[in-house]
Each structure stands twice: as structure tokens, then as C-alpha cells.
Amino acid sequence: MITKDVIDTFIDKIPPAPEALKKTISLLNAGELTQAAKVAESDLALKSYLKNIVNKPIYGFKNEVSDISQIFGILGLSESKKTVYNYMISLLSPSEWKLFQLNQKSFNELQAQLSKKWSIILDFLNINDKDIDSSISLLPSSIIVSDALFSNKIDDVKLLRSTKAIDYNTILNRLCGVDLFDICEKISIKWEMSDKVAHIIQASSGVKPAKDKDINLLGKWMHLLLFYELSKAQFVEAGLNDFIDFQVEYVSEIYEEFSTLMEVS
Amino acid sequence: MRPVVKDGIGVFSPQGFLDGNSGMSFMTGEDLKYLKNLSIDMLLVSLKNVIFFNHNGLDTFVKLFEDIRKDNHAMVGFCDYDTNKFNAIQNFYPDEMNFSLFKSLDIAYLFSSSFKESNKNILVYSHDKSQRSMIAIELHDNGHNPTLIDNQSDYNNKKDEPSFDYTVDSTFIGQMGQKIASKVSGNAIIYTITSFLDADINDKFNNEYHTNSLNVGFRLFIFESSKVISMNVPALNFFSKLSSSAAEYNATICFVGLKFDKTPIAFKENLEDSGILFYDNMEDILENKELLEELGASSAANIKNKRVINKKTVAELPRFVDATVATIEMMTNSKAQKESVEIKDIVVGDTEGKIASSIGYYGDMDGMVILVFPKEIAKQACELLIGESTDDMELILDTLAELGNIVAGKIKTMLSEDDIKVNITLPRTYQSIESLLEVIDGRKGVQVDLSFNNDEFLFFLTR
């Protein structure tokens, strides 16, 4: 159905990060917010993406914000970097989703929700690290990878899943010995993201706890946050609720804090 | 979201957070339509991967349960929860619960008429006396041996005793499914009927299951009727009609334990005229080998369907083969090569180390697909579903049945592209080729020899 060769071809086809984006990230890493905004301004698609994201209700701005330096100024270094990474990930998303009932708008909405709430979690955990903050950007790439790899086998996969409760991550792992989060890691390497990002993403799969206690804790928060979002009607209807297995036991120790923080009732 | 259906139980597995907003989105109109067309004994929502739920979240499923219980006569409820979740559900519905609660899916299977095993020793605890009794009655009706405990500390002391196959606690029996329970005993199908029988029997009896059973070769059908109080004319007509249609397959219908103190004795004569036999005890039939042979339960051969392969079937053969090859390729992640195609009696070169599965289809076309696997290919194909390599033959055969279902589902989809509508029967598996040959009973068909990674695999299509 899906072979290792198919996965390798998929990874090979992932384009390197565009130069303008690499430069923007590099300047943001160096704390050069104004310079970064100037470079970002030259990429019209990025500019449009940033405008759309920042003006979503979740960011709570009363008036439309359209100037990139203004956007970066409002977001700050860490949030700006994360948003640029979100844009990079969205470049990988298909023009037409096949496996999941998503579109550009709903995918961007998921990115925005995850990003905003990840910031709330990191504030709560007193973590101020740009790499950790931007690691959430990579998480939705697992959804893009699922859609890309399984879109030609939708009927087969549906038949298989009507017989056995088996998620896409497990199917891929059993067929090829590689799972969705391994592929996400490859994307992070190709895009020269920090090692820390890849480790957190692997732990957030819920099935590969990290040896490092701090990374593992972040993996738990990220795994629970993902399922908090994937339990929303919009994403349940998109078919995302069971695309990977939710590991309840893995997140049980942080659940109380999470539910208080997110005001779950 | 679609439920996973296995052995007559459909299970939904929502994940994460279940509230009033998300609850409805788990079930689209199409899902609901699919669900209502399913022939299931039980519909459950697993709470295993649900970390949070509230009353509104559960309520969306409880409303759905009501529909399914009415339309499909199936038992409905939640499963896979811990004590906290069990208590929360009971607190949400303090007055009346029309649904059931099963601590795990394994426990739910004990209450399903499709459960393959019986005679299990089961320790039961519930602080509610009426629940204890209901649980015991249902388990007993399904052929198990329940032991009742009325206090928690005794239950805690006994629950680890090895003499118990299962322990049942934190379980609640709401309204039972109204379907007529059925189970397989050897080559006989046993239906359990109770109370007063009237025209409702047409809804409660699973005709599709019965037809499937005839199609796959069952020839003895026993109605365990010791708990029947009486029946009226519509019920009498139902059984007469059932017996006539069974006769076309050379099948026999028996009643066991039916009393005629409240049922008119004239009904017995009517039923006997339509070919139904009467016995006092189940053992009178099941422990009498000569009688079993006479009644047809010693052979699984299907008399009615002993027909030749026709042009329509041959025309659709490529779709059947494509569906099979695609499925096995998907399951083994290997490429298949077609070696030969021939119309003949089935020929299995070396029967040693081979297992098989069959699945029937009926509707615009009818017939039976038989797949013969070397054990190693079967194991490989099942690994995707099981997740590991296994030598447990029971598990392999069980998974092979699921694989048969996937193949048949794909055939059904492919045929529907040509506007050919078929239904599929329950899959059947064979641990030896001899038992398969007994079912085929010399019928001719199209045999396609395939090879997967140099292992021979046989596809046989017959009617």
C-alpha cells in the first residue's frame, strides 16, 4: 500500500525553505525584528498569511493590522518566528485535501489555535524559549503527511478501519517501520529547525516518550493540546479526531492543570 | 465517524473531549444511515480514549441510542471506562438509564449473542440487587456460569481466583436488545426465543443473518423455546414461512422445549405440517450424533446453491480478482503475480500448512469467494491488523475472517461501480483444506492461482 520508497520520494519532494523565509527566521533569531519585517515584506504570500492569521478573532485585535513591522511588533520575536514557521508548514499543505475534509482556511485555523494555546501553556510553565515555542508549528505537518500518503488509498484505508480500530500512524508504522512523526522530524531537519523541535514532536506522538524529562513533559502537553483541538466539532467533522491514537495515560498527570488552564467544563 | 463492527458489535471510539458541541459532529447524516443499515446486536461507544465528557456530550449519543434501539432492536450503551467515569455516568442519569454500561468491550461480548465462546465462569458484583439478577440472567441465557457476590469486600477477595474466567463489576444492564439471540453450535444455529411471540417477531428475527447462514451452508436451525409463553397466528405464520424457505436449502427447523399449555395444540400440528420438528431438550439433539446426521447438521455442504458458474460471474471476474489482489497487496505490502486462470473443480496442490476463508455474496449476483492461503502469507497479511507476528491459530483465523470482510467489502464497492448491488455474508474460516472441500462439495468454479513473494495463493469463485 505505502512503501518506504513512497515515503522517501515524499520527503525528497519537500522543497528547501525559501531563502526569504530562512533570512526572516535568522533575523528573528538574532532579535532583529525590524530587519526581519523588511525581508518578510518582500514575500507577498507570507505577508498575506501573516495578515490573515493575526486578524483572526483568537488574537483579539479590534482594528485590522496590516503592516508587517506592526504585526511583528505586536507578536514579538518568539510569536513572529512561530508564525513564520506556521506559514512554511502551510506551504506543504495540499491545494485540495483528500483524506480529511479540510481547506486552507480550516487548516490555518487549526495552526492558529494550536499556536495561541501553546503560548498560554509555555507561559504557565514559565518557559521562554523560541525553539520550544515554534515547535508547535511542526505538529500539523503530521496531518499534511497523512493526507499526502494515504490520499490514493482512501477506500482501502476506510475498509481496513471499518474492520479494526487502527490509526494512520500505526498503519504506516506497521507497513514501513516509519511513522508520521519520523517524517515530521525529517521535515524539521530539511528546514534546519532546532533538534529540540524534532524531539518534542516525537514525544508529542504519545507513543515515543522522550528520555529527557523536560522534553517528555512538553510532549505530554502538546499531545493533550492536539486532542483538545481535534475534539472540536470542526475538526471532528474533518475526520481528524482519530487520525492518531490519543494516549490518555501518557497525559493523565498533566490533565488537571491543563483543564484548569483551558477552562474545560 | 464510522463504528468498527466485529462479531455483531459496532463500536464508536471518540477521542479526547466530549461535550455538547463536539458530540453531534461525531455522527454525520451519512454515518447514521450507514449505522441503521448495519445488522448489529449491540452498539457501543467506547470511552477508553475520552479524557473528559459532560452530560451534554453523552446526551448526543444517548439520543442516538434511542433511535438505534428502536430501529435496529440492538442493545446500546457505553464501554471501556474506569470507576470514576462509571460513577459520573450514573450521576448524570440518576433516574433512568435506557442504555447499558460495560466496563470493557470483552465484558460486553459476554452479553452478546454473537460471542463465540460459552460456558465461562464469571464472578459478578453489583451493589444493586436487581442489576445483579439481570446480569446473571443475561449471562446464563448466553450459556455462561455466573457466580453472584453481594458485597464489595467478598468480591475483592474472590476476583483474583483462577477459577473465574471473567469478573464483572461496574456494569449496568439497561434495556436489552430485542433481537432474537443466535449462536452457532457445531454446524447448527441456535436461536433463543422468549415470552409471547407475535407479529413483532418479523422485526426481531435477523432474516439477513438467517439467509447468510443458509448461504454459507448451515442446515440445522434450532429455536430454544423453553421460555416462550405462547404465540399468536402471525407468529405461527412466520415460522411456517421460515420452514418452507429452509426446505429449499434442505435445511431443518426444530423447536426445543416449547410447551403447549397456553399455545393452542393445533399450532403444533400446523408447524409439524410445515416441516418443523419438536424436541423436549437441547441435549436430545446435540448429543445424538445419528440424529444430527439425519437432520443435516453433520455436513456443512450447501445443497441449494450447488449451481454452475455463469457468464455474469465470469464477466465480473477481473473485479473480484483485482479486489482480492489489491487487498492482499495492501495487507502484505508485496506485489502479486497472476499464474493461471481456469474453470474447474478447486485444486489445492499441497493441502499441508494451508488455511482458508470464504465469504458469500448475494443480491444482483450471488456466489462465494474462497481464498486459500499458505499459513505464512495469512500470518503476514494479518500482521497489519494484529500488530505483531503470531502463531496463535485462533487469532490468525479470527483475523483472516476480518481480511475476508475487507476483500468482500472491496468487491462490493467495485461491483457497485457497475451498478451491481450485492450484500455479503458472514466470513467463514477453515483451519484445514479438508473442511473447506466439504463445503465446496465438488462445485465447479473459476480458480486463479496467484503468487505473493513466490508463495502460492489461491482464489476460487463459485456459486
The first-level CATH class of the largest domain in chain B is given as Alpha Beta
Query: Biggest β-sheet of chain A: count, sense, barrel?
Result: none
Task: Give start-end ranges of low-pLDDT stretches of chain A.
Answer: none
Question: Main β-sheet of chain B: number of strands, strand sense, barrel status?
Answer: 7 strands, antiparallel
Residue share in helix of chain B: 25-40%
Please, what is the oligomeric state?
heterodimer
Name the poorly predicted regions of chain B: none
Helix content percent band of chain A = 55-70%
- On the 0 to 100 scale, the average pLDDT of chain B is 84
At CATH level 2, the architecture of the largest domain in chain B is 2-Layer Sandwich
Q: How many β-strand runs of chain B?
A: 22
Instruction: For the record, give the distance between the C-alpha atoms at the N and C termini of chain B, rounded to a whole number.
Output: 35 Å
Structural class of chain A: mainly alpha
